[in-house]
Amino acid sequence: MTTASKLNRLTPYFFLAPAVLLLIVALLYPIGYMIYASFLDWRPSQYISEAEFVGFRNYINLWNDEAFRESFGVTLKFAAVVVTLEMALGVGLALLLDRNLRGMAALRTIFILPMMIAPIVVGLMWRYMYHPTVGIFNRTLKNWGLEPIPWLSDGTWSFIAVVIADVWQWTPFIFILSLAALQSLPQSALEAAELDGASGWQKIWHIKLPLMMPVLIVALLLRLIDAFKVLEVVLVMTNGGPGLSTEILSLRIFRTAQEFQELGVAAAMSNYLLILLMLLTTIMFVYNKAVENRAARLRAAAQET
Amino acid sequence: MPTIRFEQVEKSFGAVRVLPPLDLTLDDGEFTVLVGPSGCGKSTTLRILAGLEELSGGEIYFDEKPISNLASKERDLAMVFQDYALYPHMNIAKNMSFALRLKKTPAAEIETKVKRVADMLNIGHLLDRKPAELSGGQRQRVAMGRALVRDASTFLFDEPLSNLDAKLRGKMRTELAEMRDTLDKNMVYVTHDQIEAMTLGDRIVVMSEGVIQQQGTPEQLFKEPANKFVAGFIGSPTMNFLDAELVSEKSKLWARGDGFNLPLSKEMTATLKGYSKKEVTLGVRPSSFSTDTKAGAPIELRLVVSEYLGAQSTLVTKCGEAEVLVEHESSSPVRTGGTLKFGVRTEELMVFDKETERRL
Ligand SMILES: Nc1ncnc2c1ncn2[C@@H]1O[C@H](COP(=O)(O)OP(=O)(O)O)[C@@H](O)[C@H]1O
Ligand SMILES: [Mg+2]
Predict the structure, then answer these.
(1) Boundaries of every domain in chain A
(2) Residue B55, CA atoms < 13 Å, CB-side half-sphere
(3) Are residues B265 and B182 located together in one domain of the fold?
(4) What are B62-68's contacts with CB under 8 Å, separation 24+?
């Protein structure tokens, strides 16, 4: 190869290099900043360079901190509960509405509306509905002559309240992904199952759900990642309370930085969360890659025969 | 195995009527082929029978029992789909045993049945593969196997060979023909390929635009087509149609037209007595031409192209302005551009009414 043609081959890289570098810096600088900050005892009033370097002290303290562990537990519980409910409801609704009846299109559009609303608005909306006296729920209960429910003033009820709000907002996400998956299923395989004697439930169990599985797993992971980061709805509705009953991790991080002014500790908390999320993301990528590889392997095997 | 009877069965999709009222009887233990051009309603007919489409009118009877209200699974049918419709996530053994597993058949019995059918179809070594790991031909066999394991009373096939390459299609056609003879089942087979229809059918039902044109054995359809459509659809190369006038001369009827004047046989002269001086369509099979000019009535054709197919060639010729196909032994060579003399076996000629297109 001549020098000229070698240079020609490299030309695109010369042009791309600045943009790529900028992108990497823009992506990694804030993350690097956060990781660095987590090793400091740093107050907002200080320059970062004035902060004391404390090594892993923030991490160790958090590890031993009862309240932090509880907050972590609330987060796990919240994510597990909402994602389970959203998956069950979303998939169930999709199975129910996957048919070509008149009005279905409109119904589907209505079902995905909650997803379009800003979380902060969702939080406000639900807070008013949960209002102890004028909220729709307690007013209705009262009209029926029933005891009011301490929606946001009781630990258990407030957890349920934020779960309901999140499920209300994010079930549609699972719903549209499931519906898309259902509608791309091979119709003739379902007809074959029909002739093979499968009932409606058997078709769902033996054909539809297994074939939807790749989409469902990705949907599940995306929702989990999101559920671990939820903030606004809880902040607006309960602000973590009463007590620590709804103090999810992102809220604790926010308050540690904002109210207690412990930026280093907040950064260390964020990194614990980051590790968890990276784990989930990695699982998702590995899973996707495995699905892809499998498809490629099957195609290759079919070519050979 | 039931006798299946369609009585005035209709089907419309919205405003589009696909099947006008249709009557059809499928006898017990018969291999019936529904054949017709694409879009003529064959699949729709089969799918109505399978319960995958609802009928818009009429009724289907299994041995005089109306079944249109029964779900597919209650009709005791097995179907082979055009795209095979295998379950992508199940291996071949699981695919084939799905129906049996739903019926809670004992595992040992399932295994014997699957193995027997798989061996019969030469797919025994593929049982633990997934459908995506198989070639088209293998998938086709699995689809067939899945239906056979069922032991249903009636088998439905919707163009099962149309996704295979020509060579494999020929092979599978032969195997199907063998299977037809060993299995004592009702089989309803849909295809647009008249060769498949002719080789497989005990009885062939020719459809066009939702209307049954004719039913009969392959030989009946070839020798006594009811109308111009059937005559043109059955047989390869296709029949030549020429505009002609019937003229009575020397106590015979003659079909006269642009570049030909052919005498009709005695029987035809008798049956067509009333048609003297009428305009008709004359049908001549490509196989009715002989190089031996004494073998029939003489005709002169202008050769345009010779399509070499091996032992046989198809000659594309002109008779006046009309195109005429001639089946020809390749061993006697012809020269392009010249005029050729043939003898037409006049007893094989067919005459069709110009308006109704019925054979006269
Ligand atoms: N689900 C459907 N909706 C609307 N039209 C249809 C539907 N299925 C088939 N058709 C129409 O019915 C006609 C017959 O189709 P089909 O039975 O599939 O023909 P064939 O199998 O003979 O090729 C075609 O014109 C086709 O467009
Ligand atoms: Mg079809």
Answers:
(1) 69-292
(2) 27
(3) no
(4) B62/B2, B62/B3, B62/B4, B63/B2, B63/B3, B64/B5, B65/B2
* Closest approach of A98 to chain B, Cα-based (Å): 17
Judge: A194–B130 Cβ closer than 8 Å, yes or no.
Answer: no
Residue B225 and residue B115 share a domain: yes
A298/B130 Cβ within 8 A: yes
Q: How many domains does chain B have?
A: 2
Which residues on A lie below 8 Å from B78 (Cβ)?
195
Task: For residue B312, give how far its alpha carbon lies from the nearest alpha carbon of chain A (Å).
Answer: 34
* Residue A1: per-residue pLDDT: 56
Alpha helices in B55-135 (DSSP H): 92-102, 107-120
Residue B360: inside a domain: no
Using a CB-CB cut-off of 8 Å, the residues of chain B touching A198 are 73, 98, 102
A200: how many CB neighbours lie within 10 A of its CB? 10
Residue B182's domain comprises 4-233
Nearby residues for ligand 2 (ion, Cβ within 5 Å): B 43
Is the distance from the beta carbon of residue B18 to the nearest atom of ligand 1 less than 6 Å? yes
Mutational pocket test of ligand 1: of B9, B11, B16, the residue with most ligand atoms within 8 Å of the beta carbon: B16
Shared domain for B38 and B106, answered yes or no, is yes
What CATH number does residue B314 fall under?
A: 2.40.50.140
Structure-block tokens of residue A280 = 């989930």
Domain annotation covers residue B308? yes
Residues B169, B247: one domain? no
What CATH number is associated with residue B57?
3.40.50.300
B188 and B299 in a single domain? The answer is no
Residue pair A119/A169 in contact by the 8 Å Cβ criterion: yes
The protein residue with its alpha carbon nearest to ligand 1, atom 26, reads: B39
Task: State whether B134 and A210 contact (CB < 8 Å).
Answer: no
Please indicate, yes or no, whether residues B195 and B283 belong to a single structural domain of this protein.
no
Closest ligand to residue B19's CA = 1
Tell me how far the alpha carbon of residue B229 lies from the centroid of ligand 1, in angstroms: 20
Chain A residues in contact with B72 by the CB 8 A cut-off are 191, 194-195
Compute the mean pLDDT over every residue in chain A, rounded to the nearest whole number. 88
Same domain (yes/no): B103, B249:
no
| B207 and B296 together in one domain | no
Q: Mind listing the pLDDT tens digit for each residue in B162-202?
A: 888 888 888 888 888 888 888 778 899 999 999 999 999 88
Establish, for the pair of chains A and B, how many residue pairs have beta carbons separated by less than 8 Å. 77
Q: Is residue B359 part of a domain?
A: no
Chosen domain end from B210, B233, B256: B233
> Tokens in use for B245?
């006038």
Confidence band of B344 (pLDDT split at 50, 70, 90): very high
Whether residue B324 lies inside any domain: the answer is yes
Q: State which of B233, B263, B282 marks the end of a domain.
A: B233
Please list, in sequence order, all residues whose beta carbon lies within 8 angstroms of the beta carbon of residue A63, skipping any fewer than 6 positions away: none
pLDDT value for A48: 81
Q: Does domain A69-292 have CATH number 1.10.3720.10?
A: yes
Mean pLDDT throughout A148-175?
92
Residues of A with CB under 8 A from a CB of B: 186, 188-189, 191-199, 202, 206-207, 210-211, 213, 295, 298-299, 301-302, 305
pLDDT digits (tens, 9 = 90+) for A254-288: 988 888 888 888 999 999 999 988 998 898 889 88
Q: How far apart are the first and last CA of chain B?
A: 38
